[in-house]
Structure formats: C-alpha cells, structure tokens
Amino acid sequence: MNINKKKNFLQGIFALMVMLFITQTPVLAAEVTKQAAAPEGFKAVLTVIPLIVILILLFKKVDMLVAGLIGGVMAMIIGGITLAQANDFFLKAIPSMLTITVPIINSAVAMAVFKSGGYTSALTLVRRGIKGRVEFFAAFIVILQAAATYMSGIGGGSAMVIAPLAFAAVGAIPELIAAMAIAAAVSFTTSPASLESGVVSQLGNIPVAQYVDSMRIYWIGFVILAIIIGYYGAKKRNAIFTGEENEEVKNMTNKELFKSTIPVIFLLFAVIFGPFVNKAVGVPILSPLVYTVVTVALIFICTKFSLSESVNAMVDGSNYILVKLFSVGIFLAFINMIGETGAFTAIVSVAKLAPPALVVPATVLAGFLVGVPAGAYVGSVLTLVLPVAVSLGFTPMELGFVAMGVGLGSQMSFVNITMQALSSGFQIPIIDVVKGNTKWVGGCVALLLIISFIF
C-alpha cells in the first residue's frame, strides 16, 4: 500500500512538472511583476486553488516544502510564471529570511544559557525558597517557560528542558501544562528571537523591534493569565512536591545556584529592557553585540562551562533557528509565486466585503483554525495567512494578533513540537495534553478575539 501511495505521489509530481514545461513561455528573461493584478471571475477562483492544496497537504502532515513545491508548480502553470521568474523568487526569498539577524543572535545566546544549566538552577533555587508552597512553584515554572521562550524564540526547546524538571517536582498538573503551552505560544509569536517574529517582520515590512514593542503589553497580559492558570491548578489540586531535587544541583549551595542563574537574569533583562535603557542613555549599551559578549562571558564566569564550551554552546545554539529560517525561506518562495498570480489580491477583494470591524477578528480566528491541524509549521502558516492581512492594511499590532491566534492554535495540535515536548516531559499521552489545553487555550482565543475587535 505504501509503495502504491509513493508511486501515485511521484506520478502526480511528474505530471505537474510536465505541464509546467509545456506551459513555459519562450521569454526566459522576463522580469518578475512588481504587483499582481487583481484576477476576476473564474480566474480569481483558480488562483486560490494552490493555497487550498497546500493547506490540505499540511493538514495531512505532508512536509511543508513538498506541499509548497506542489502549490508553487500549480501557481506557475495557472499564472504563466516562467522558470526564470520562479528562480528569481527562490533566490530572493531565502536570503530575505536569513538576514533577520537579531532573532538569530538572541536564539543562539539563549540556547547557550539553556545548556549551561541556568534554568535548572533557577527552578531549584525557587523550590528551596518557597518552603513547600507548590502553587508558587507552579507559577514560577510558567514564568520560566515564558521567559525562556521569549529569549530563545523556541517554545519546544524551552519545554524540553523545563517540563521534565516540573514533572519530577510536582507531577502532571493539567492546568500547569496548559499554562506552559499558552505561555510558550504567546512568547514565540512575539519574541525578538523567534522565527515567527521574523516572518511577521519580513511580510509586514516592519522592523522586528517595532513589532515586538507593539506586542509587548499583550505578551505580558497573556503571560500573567497563564501564571494565574498554573497557580490555580496547583492550588485547586492541593499539589505537593513529588520528587527530590535534580541530581545535578542537589549538592550546590544557594549561593552557587544563584551565581549560575546570573546569565539568565542578565539576558532576560537585556532582551526585554535593553531598548528602554538604550533610549534613556542615548547610547546602545545593551545592543545585541554587547549582551551577546557579556552573556557568553557570564556563562564562563558563573557556570562550569569553560570559555570554549561557552562560545561553542552559543554557535551550536544557532542551528535550530538557521535551519528553520532556511526552510521557511524556500517555502516563502513558493508562496510568493502564488501571490504573483493574484491569489492574495482575490482573497482581499472578498474580505473587503465584510464589515471593517470584523475583518481583524475573522483573520485571527482563521489563523487559529489553521494552526490547530498545521501546528508543526507555525512559521509556514503565517506565510499563508499574513499576506492577506498585510494587503488589508493591518497594523503591526493587528498582525501580532493574527500571529498569536496561529500560535494558540498550535497548542491544540498533535504535531506541534511544544506539545510533543510537554507530552514527553510530563509523561502523558499527547491526547491528554490536547484535552487538558482545550478549555484554557479556547478561553485565551476568545479573549484574543475580543481584544482584536476592540483595538
């Protein structure tokens, strides 16, 4: 059966490629059109088909690049896009994503802090200080999940480290798991270090810093809500500590633990408050260059890492986001081909018929609904949804609401890496994670829709 499926799939790809070469025009040096003309009638419906095909393939868990290729080839056939034009899209999209340097730097430095054990030390220090008040420990776990994700831009990476530590300390509390998922979603969609913020910046043609500034108050608001959910769950269930301290740190004194958390504290301060400090003093004393060097130095001074290990941890930490940016760059090339056919212009012309007050909430809801089945590809889903929002003239804040909607949808997805990390870390089936998240994530989405309607 698998062989037949593979054979049919390859035959379909081959047929598309044959059609592509048949429909190629002889003008191989044609320039890419600056702005797609609005298609009309049946042509308008036709241009949207590649987008629908990509979404269906993503829902069926087909690799995003395979889905993008199929949609891109269909767009070339429908729009008469030449190979020269397609190559131009390809060569421009990839470097456009890889030039988003600040998220790459932040993610790399944050991953170095992860590897040095700063988060484990922070959790242990808090556990010792709260004297058995598990609800406060649960609240701190959510704060750490949000802070770690915001600094690194990677929700799954944060959960992989924090979830097992939380489970060993307090067990699997459904509300705590949901709170960690919500904190991760609102953090990686608004982080100065994330792929998702990079996509919003690139498609919205706005600096990452401006986007992050416009969303900071909403990020804080949803994180506070997640903290309350985690606290409530631990309090309601009368949770108690279920295990001993991590073997790595149980013999360390409080002074030693605090010392190893200094890199975490400094990086968090630099990422969140750096722009305000720089503006206040008129000098970029907390620029990416400065806080990168200082954080690596602090890892060397305050932890067991040698200088070489500290530097190598930062370099290795860039692998994840660079790979993801490269993949999304390729996917974006196919999406741009679809845009060249006028697909997004056609969608916008329909969206404009809706009452203006409902356009933003409707787009947020659409992002959430797409994010649930396609949660493994949040960055790619944003490349599908955001061009329409940009064409409708959404502000950076409104684009952020859409990104948050997609992110929250991913926290009800079986294929999302953060969800997989929570399932593994708390040692429960992922279906139980999804069920436990549904009520709380759904409530956050409802709140997000209200906010997007009001603001």
From TrEMBL:
- Which chain regions cross the lipid bilayer? 39-59, 66-87, 93-114, 134-155, 217-234, 257-277, 289-307, 319-338, 358-387, 399-417, 437-454
Q: Which keywords are on file for this protein?
A: Membrane, Signal, Transmembrane, Transmembrane helix
Q: Which source organism?
A: Clostridium mobile
Q: What is this protein called?
A: Citrate transporter
> Which N-terminal residues, if any, form the signal peptide?
1-29
